[in-house]
């Protein structure tokens, strides 16, 4: 699977950051590295080692989302996913409840799948 990360352009990624806001609470942040994650919901943090293979699955999913900017939105749900190599931003995906289509749902589904894997 290491070769796959080179082909899809994620080989140099060493951190993925997710921030999500919701209208009725349940805001969270998620920071994932190839070895560990920190998941913070409403100010309560959980950190642990990342299970084998999960980093590759996550980076593949994030890469598939591609880069995207959200439309301006005064309030509602929002998610931002940032892939970094060191301090260099390699990809950014942002969506919110004001966007047309299923951009928000796609990102939420990917992150919810990851959270289910680590829970």
Structural description of this entry:
The chain is an alpha+beta fold and about 120 residues long. It has three helices and six strands. It has helices at about 1-10, 55-65, 105-119; strands at about 15-20, 30, 35-40, 45-50, 80-85, 90-95. Helix 2 runs antiparallel to helix 3 (about 105-119). The longest helix has 16 residues, at about 105-119. Residues about 1-10 have low confidence and may be disordered.
Strand order of the largest sheet: 4-3-2-1-5-6
Dominant shape: globular
Cα-atom Rg, whole angstroms?
14 Å
Query: What percent of residues adopt helix (DSSP H or I)?
Result: 25-40%
Largest sheet: 6 strands, antiparallel
Q: Helical stretch count?
A: 3
Kindly state the number of beta strands: 6
Topology:
Layout: H1 2-8, E1 15-21, E2 28-32, E3 36-41, E4 44-49, H2 54-65, E5 78-85, E6 88-96, H3 103-118
Helix pairs in contact: 2-3
Question: Short summary of the structure?
Answer:
The protein has 119 residues and is α+β, with helices and mostly antiparallel strands. 29% of the residues lie in helices and 34% in strands.
Key attributes of the depicted protein:
3 helices, 119 residues, six-stranded antiparallel sheet, globular, disordered N terminus, alpha+beta, 29% helix
């Amino acid at each position: 699977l290491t070769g796959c990360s080179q082909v899809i352009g994620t080989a140099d990624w060493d951190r993925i950051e997710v921030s999500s806001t919701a209208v009725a609470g349940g805001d969270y942040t998620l920071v994932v590295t190839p070895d560990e994650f920190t998941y913070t919901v409403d100010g309560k943090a959980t950190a642990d080692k990342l299970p084998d293979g999960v980093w590759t699955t996550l980076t593949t999913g994030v890469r598939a989302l591609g880069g995207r900017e959200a439309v301006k939105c005064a309030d509602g749900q929002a998610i931002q996913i940032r892939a970094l190599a060191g301090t260099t931003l390699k990809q950014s995906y942002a969506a919110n409840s004001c966007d047309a289509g299923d951009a928000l749902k796609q990102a939420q589904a990917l992150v919810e799948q990851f959270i289910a894997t680590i829970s």
